[in-house]
Amino acid sequence: MPKLNTISGKKMIKILKLLGFREIRSNGSHHFFFNEQTRNTATIPIHGNEDLGKGILKQILQDIELSVEESHIQFASA
């Protein structure tokens, strides 16, 4: 299993938009995304340019049904 690289919340938002997610609302520093086709939701915390913690990143990947291997491809393309 490849190592999970951390990224910022802003970069994760770019990746979600590439995957067909759209922002449905935001509450403070948390942005909520929804994908019409897969019916998946994701919550992304934005705290400046800080990287997302590995636990939060792992949960987001699980929420959007993206494996760690697939995430490396998406992270490289964003």
TrEMBL record:
<keyword id="KW-0694">RNA-binding</keyword>
<protein>
    <recommendedName>
        <fullName>Type II toxin-antitoxin system HicA family toxin</fullName>
    </recommendedName>
</protein>
<keyword id="KW-0346">Stress response</keyword>
<dbReference type="InterPro" id="IPR012933">
    <property type="entry name" value="HicA_mRNA_interferase"/>
</dbReference>
<keyword id="KW-0540">Nuclease</keyword>
<dbReference type="Pfam" id="PF07927">
    <property type="entry name" value="HicA_toxin"/>
</dbReference>
<dbReference type="GO" id="GO:0004519">
    <property type="term" value="F:endonuclease activity"/>
</dbReference>
<comment type="similarity">
    <text>Belongs to the HicA mRNA interferase family.</text>
</comment>
<dbReference type="InterPro" id="IPR038570">
    <property type="entry name" value="HicA_sf"/>
</dbReference>
<dbReference type="GO" id="GO:0016787">
    <property type="term" value="F:hydrolase activity"/>
</dbReference>
<keyword id="KW-0378">Hydrolase</keyword>
<dbReference type="GO" id="GO:0003729">
    <property type="term" value="F:mRNA binding"/>
</dbReference>
<keyword id="KW-0255">Endonuclease</keyword>
<keyword id="KW-1277">Toxin-antitoxin system</keyword>
